[in-house]
Q: What sequence folds into this?
């Protein structure tokens, strides 16, 4: 029981103190898992990154599930996942409630009138940094261009695009 | 009655199942499902949800799911959406954790993801363009967009600070606009 509680608290902390999502969460996870609790060795931690790239879903959730499973089995993975989303759940619902209630007010609408264009800038910036880390060779660039073309010309669902690009990856990189 | 919750669960199950790469990778899929296909929320509201998700701790996809679920159907909506988002991770990771040593050397899987990664960049890029079309073409909006982009890329300011700065600018600008109109609202 104590072990489950420790696992839960550890991932609660990860969920509560990592901002920005994605790989921004990795250093904190590494700190908790590898150095403080020693649930995984540094090389097992590298496996998490590889596994996260193969698995869908948020990286922090993937890490929680993986560590929880390795340490305490299926129940452990559920406990760790619950821990990592717990804080989000409370904070987001509280803030959502406030925002929805005051959506038409001068202050909230003023705030969002500045944030909305800013977020588009943030997404564009994320795109640039992803470009640098994800498109590392000419084949990758070609796949990116093909996908852009498909998105412009067709109404394909992003899920279909993911499968097509995966197939393209297998086809192009096996040559 | 329960049907809408399961529908929400199923939508976010797909979001969770096909979001590779974390962070903003979920934007194109949620956008397609919630905004374009089902018309459950407007594009502007979707931008607000992303902003809030980015500014609070925790994974962006998880925050966005909770917000969207809560906005649509209250606490139960948030719970169903959240379970939908994390369940695929849970299932896939457990399978991978069991078979990782057998799987990690299969070349085709690695190549598949080598192809998926550039596609995610293109998907997010198109999302940004679509989102950009949804807001007014005012010089204030272009300025905020450009400054946020430069702040992240060139100056490497933390995204939360950028969101806070944009919020402040938005508030000050609307106050000035209101005073210029001379009216009390």
A:
């Amino acid at each position: 029981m104590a072990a489950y509680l420790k696992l839960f608290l550890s991932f609660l902390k990860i969920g509560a103190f990592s901002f920005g999502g994605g790989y921004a969460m990795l250093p904190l996870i590494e700190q908790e898992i590898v150095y403080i609790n020693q649930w995984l060795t540094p090389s097992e931690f590298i496996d998490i990154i590889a596994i996260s790239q193969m698995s869908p879903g948020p990286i922090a959730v993937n890490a929680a599930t993986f560590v929880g499973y390795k340490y305490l089995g299926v129940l452990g993975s559920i406990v760790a996942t619950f821990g990592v989303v717990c804080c989000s759940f409370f904070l987001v619902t509280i803030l959502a409630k406030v925002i929805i209630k005051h959506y038409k007010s001068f202050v909230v609408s003023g705030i969002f009138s500045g944030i909305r264009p800013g977020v588009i800038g943030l997404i564009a910036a994320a795109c640039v940094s992803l470009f640098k880390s994800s498109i590392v060779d000419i084949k990758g660039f070609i796949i990116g261009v093909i996908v852009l073309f498909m998105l412009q010309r067709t109404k394909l669902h992003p899920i279909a695009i993911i499968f097509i690009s995966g197939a393209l990856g297998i086809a192009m990189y096996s040559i | 009655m329960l049907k809408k919750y399961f529908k929400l669960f199923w939508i976010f199950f797909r979001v969770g199942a096909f979001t590779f790469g974390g962070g903003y990778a979920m934007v194109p899929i949620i956008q397609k499902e919630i905004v374009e296909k089902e018309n459950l929320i407007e594009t502007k509201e979707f931008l607000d949800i992303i902003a809030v998700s980015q500014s609070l701790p925790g994974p962006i996809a998880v925050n966005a799911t909770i917000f969207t679920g809560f906005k649509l159907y209250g606490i139960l909506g948030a719970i169903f959406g959240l379970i939908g988002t994390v369940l695929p991770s849970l299932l896939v990771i457990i399978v991978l954790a069991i078979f990782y040593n057998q799987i990690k050397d299969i070349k085709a899987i690695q190549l598949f993801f080598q192809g998926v990664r550039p596609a995610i960049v293109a998907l997010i890029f198109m999302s940004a363009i679509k989102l950009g079309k949804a807001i007014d073409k005012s010089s204030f909006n272009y300025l905020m967009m450009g400054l946020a982009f430069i702040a992240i890329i060139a100056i490497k300011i933390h995204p939360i600070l950028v969101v806070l700065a944009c919020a402040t600018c938005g508030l000050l600008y609307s106050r000035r606009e209101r005073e210029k109109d001379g009216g009390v609202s």
Q: What stands out?
A: The mean pLDDT of chain A is 89. Chain A touches chain B through 97 residues (CB under 8 Å).
